[in-house]
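Technical annex, item 7. During the second reporting period the consortium partners agreed on a shared format for inverse folding records so that results from different sites could be compared directly. Each record opens with the tokenized structure and is followed by the designed sequence. A conforming record, contributed by the partner at site C, is shown below for reference.
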């Protein structure tokens, strides 16, 4: 693994789009998380506290998870593209977001905790489900968004590597060089 990181690096290249992939994956992963939140009635207490509906609270949650997906793409970049370990990155990231976001906002900052018992458990499970879905969905979304120079130029044209140096169409004669006669 270390040898691969030295050769390729962790930073995403200019044709890769980790922010856009993270945004799409974050919103997509919010769908099963919202189902968990609705099942545990975790959206009702925050909606009552701020005086809105549970649907509006769910939309705010989806927007925050969009930002969480962008943060995931920025933080992990190429590592988030791992098909085998993406689910683990995602679940760990969902847990960290749960610790940083909802816990201080809903439990510590108000006079009394907003979520208790079953709805609080639903919030934790929703964040873990969101992270799991984010880790699973990110890689296929990222592969679809990956813009390859080879695809733009068409099949059979190599733009990098040893194949690019051997293409006759790309060779140009040097101005001072004369071809030897045989």
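Designed sequence (site C submission):
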């Amino acid at each position: 693994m270390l040898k691969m990181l030295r050769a390729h690096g962790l930073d995403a290249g200019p044709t890769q789009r980790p922010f856009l992939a993270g945004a799409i994956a974050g919103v997509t992963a919010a769908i099963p998380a919202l189902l968990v939140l609705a099942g545990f009635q975790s959206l009702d207490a925050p909606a009552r506290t701020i005086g809105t509906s549970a649907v509006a609270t769910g939309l705010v949650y989806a927007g925050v998870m969009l930002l969480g997906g962008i943060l995931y793409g920025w933080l992990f970049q190429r590592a988030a593209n791992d098909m085998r370990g993406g689910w683990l990155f995602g679940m760990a990231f969902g847990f960290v977001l749960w610790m940083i976001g909802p816990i201080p906002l809903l439990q510590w900052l108000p006079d009394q905790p907003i979520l208790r018992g079953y709805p609080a458990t639903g919030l934790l499970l929703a964040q873990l489900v969101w992270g799991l879905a984010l880790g699973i969905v990110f890689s296929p979304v990222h592969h679809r968004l990956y813009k390859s120079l080879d695809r733009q130029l068409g099949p059979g044209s190599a733009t990098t590597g040893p194949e690019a140096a051997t293409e006759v169409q790309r060779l140009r004669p040097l101005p001072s060089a004369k071809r030897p006669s045989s």
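The chain has nine helices and no strands. The CA atoms of residues 105 and 111 lie 11 Å apart. All partners now use this format for quarterly exchanges.
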